[in-house]
Amino acid sequence: MEIFDYLEENPNKSYKLLDVGSCYNPFKKFQCFDTLAIDIAPAVEDVVKCDFLDLKVDEKLSISNTKCILELPKCSFNIVIFSLYLEYLPTPKQRLDSCLKAYKLLKTEGLLVIISPDSNHVGANAKIMKSWRTCLAKVGFSRVKYEKLTHLHCMAFRKSYLKEIPLRWVQIYPNLDVYDEMFIPQDFKKLGESSHKSEPYEIEFNKELPLQM
């Protein structure tokens, strides 16, 4: 993705990055990032415990006695990463709430990067991806990059300095065939059908991230 090419060209500048659902803090190796890695169940010591859904966004950093982040200051990050995070949330509302929280945490023109698993061909879940773009445009995000890899959707959204800019895109195309919520394919599983299938991306997705770790 071009954003990473740009960052590599500016190695001395520190970009504040929030990695949500980080697990093992893969971005720590890149010196151009000042990374805060959070996860509800950290796998390594340099990932801080935090329930992002319960996180408050206000004016300060607040940490509990158990070293769990409770609050982060608004407009304090250049980049927020949701890598294989939104799919773990059981409802469309929680996914949108997470994106709203990312919007509050980002500085103006900051980036929300979303990586979502999908082993189907590029058009199989196109309506869902268009729906995400529409929902996030209403929040104030403009999509600046989309790439479909074999097992992943990779998207970058910019926090616009005026919410009216991405909203204008929605108004230009009022008859788009989209959902009004941030669904994932599992939401449409029939009652009683397993919502989880053992697919190749579970083993191979790390090979296909747009930035090699």
Automatic annotation (TrEMBL):
PANTHER family for this protein: S-ADENOSYLMETHIONINE SENSOR UPSTREAM OF MTORC1, S-ADENOSYLMETHIONINE SENSOR UPSTREAM OF MTORC1-RELATED
Gene Ontology MF term list: methyltransferase activity
The species this protein was found in: Acanthoscelides obtectus
UniProt entry tagged with the keyword Oxidoreductase: no
Protein name, per record: S-adenosylmethionine sensor upstream of mTORC1
GO biological process: methylation; negative regulation of TORC1 signaling
TM regions (residue ranges): none
Entries under InterPro entries matching the protein: Bmt2/SAMTOR, SAM-dependent_MTases_sf
Pfam families membership: Bmt2
Domain of life per record: Eukaryota
Keywords: Methyltransferase, S-adenosyl-L-methionine, Transferase
